[in-house]
Amino acid sequence: MTADTTPALVEDRQPAPGPRVRKRSAYPRYLAGKVAGAAVSLLAVLVTSFFLFRLIPGDPVKTMTGGRQVSAEQLAAYREEFGLDLPLWRQFTDYCGKALTGDFGTSYQFRAPVVDKITEALSNTLLLTGTAFVLYTVLGIFLGTRSAWRRGGLGDRVNTGLALTLYSIPSFWLGLLLIIVLSVGIGPLPGLFPTGGMESGGEEGFAYLLDVAHHLVLPVVTLVAVEYGQTLLVTRSALLDEMGSDYLTTARAKGLRDDLVRRRHAVPNALLPTVTLIFINLGRTVAGVILVETVFSWPGLGGLFYQALSVPDLPLVQGLFFVFAAAVILMNTLADLVYPLLDPRVAR
User: Fold this and answer.
1) 225/143 Cα distance (integer angstroms)
2) How many CB atoms lie within 10 A of CB 195?
3) Fewer beta carbons under 10 A from the terminal one: N or C of the chain?
């Protein structure tokens, strides 16, 4: 065997190159799974909303008559008008078929399409809960990071204790307390804010905006006081888990100030649990807070739901329940889709 033939033999012994394996991203499959799960959840909510509220005792038709003497023929006509004379399975199929097209029926008490009533109240709810959401999210993250970075200090103990106390207080009780103290007034302390509603009436332009802001103060303070503690505690716990990491020790060893280490390294890596909470709270922003809106007579989705539940106005209750649940489901799904952008390991 000569030296000239050796390279040829070596070439023959090398395995033939196989087909190139393309490394596919796992994100599309992750995305499809989350979207499919959200769709199944929405269908489950649609079915649940129909049967759940039919367990409420009471006859909606008799409630709509307001206790007046009504003949059996008139009651039968009302039931036929709203489809309550049909078998339950037929009511269910009609409801699902219309709901899938965005038609939740006609409200019993308002005699108007459910979608129109929800649209009217939605802006008021977003004004109240959206304002509160921004305030308690910023406040919770800011105080949570400072408490974690200076854990065990006086500020940490005060912030944590106050957050736990306010978070455990029922929102309706705190709202009533604020109305008594700051709206009605106690002793020499006069009432400074309206007891309820969204406006006094008769105002226009900039004066109207000031009037709405004046009515907005107490319900927003109630929501912020009750809700900011959860964001604070979650942010603090997540940041404490990150503080023992080696990369923070390395950053300090390089001479970075504690403030830069916290803002540039620790906080961004600790935000994943907080992002989950933010999106959940964002879904609840659309749903509104039923008790707070009821206590302050705020004309939003929560107050509308309370009115509909007292009848019971089945189409309106079902439509509102679906909107509330859909908002939370969609926000949770959006949070799941954002996770891989913050941490690519989630989608693997």
Assistant:
1) 13
2) 15
3) N
